[in-house]
Amino acid sequence: MTITDKSKKKDQNINIGRSYSMHSRILKEERPYWVYLPNSYDEGNKKQCYPVLYLLDGDAYFQSTSGVVQFMSSGINGNCQIPEMIVVAIPNTDRGRDLTPTHSTIGYDGKEDAFLESTGGGDAFLQFMRDELFRRLIQDSPHSLCESSWVIL
Question: Looking at residue 142, what is its pLDDT?
Fold first, then answer.
């Protein structure tokens, strides 16, 4: 069998997570987010509680972060340094807007920079996370998401 063999079954894929999307009325755009679930995640066990790691720059760090979380929490070779957790990656749509608290078009060199035109949307992005994304995940998860154990990176 070759790598390009079209007879491969779908369940032979190696997946680290799922891609989702939601419309944000706060940001007025469609926002993607990606979710990694630990191996022990069982939708039937509603008593299990998982910490959640929210990962900014998710498009750059989702694969590596999910891999590190899985390795450090899986118990493989006695390696159980952190609890199993859910990773929610938030890819960038406009990093300069979403991750800056104030608006300024003045660059590091003291000159106007058109690239900075969209800066200053940090408050709206935090409101999106709190009022829309967090609520969507709590609503859609059959598990209790350990809200006291949320981490944003």
Answer: 62
